[in-house]
Amino acid sequence: MICAGSGIAILIWVMWEPFRLEQDSAQVKFPPPLVYFGFLLTGLLLDRLSERVPDFIPVSAWIMIAGGFAALAGIFFMVAGSSRFKKLGNNLEPWKHANQIVSSGIYRFTRNPMYLGMALAYLGLALLFRSSWAVIVLPVAILVIRTQVIAREERYLAAKFGDEYLDYKARVRRWL
To answer: Can you tell me the distance from the alpha carbon of 28 to that of 47, in angstroms, rounded to the nearest whole number?
Structure first.
């Protein structure tokens, strides 16, 4: 089931944009937003198909407020990160080359504001939809992003920018 939702998200991406993996890149082979989207869809689908839904998200105004806050915070992190990238002329797509280390703006506080934002938006939506399965599979989505995207990006940036990136990496945390 988990693979089904991720597979649907990747299929949407393949139809949406032709794949052009650059040699000088982190060699990330799929769009990170679709990883989160695929796992969120999988969680929502499991909620609908499962006879024994682990319903641990209560109906509560506080849950809705927390979900809304998390989703809005996620959007803020994604917009702040992507707008800083665009302003400095860096590619947003991790399968394209990096022009420079972005260490200003939101990047002073987190090395991965867009991925953090995606995780927060996912959590917010999972809470707003009261999807227990989506909350359960969120750590798996984060693990996939950490091992298949962030780890590749970190290796690429260290190889390309050397001490400049390593100094930045020592100063700023991966998430928060």
So the answer is: 30
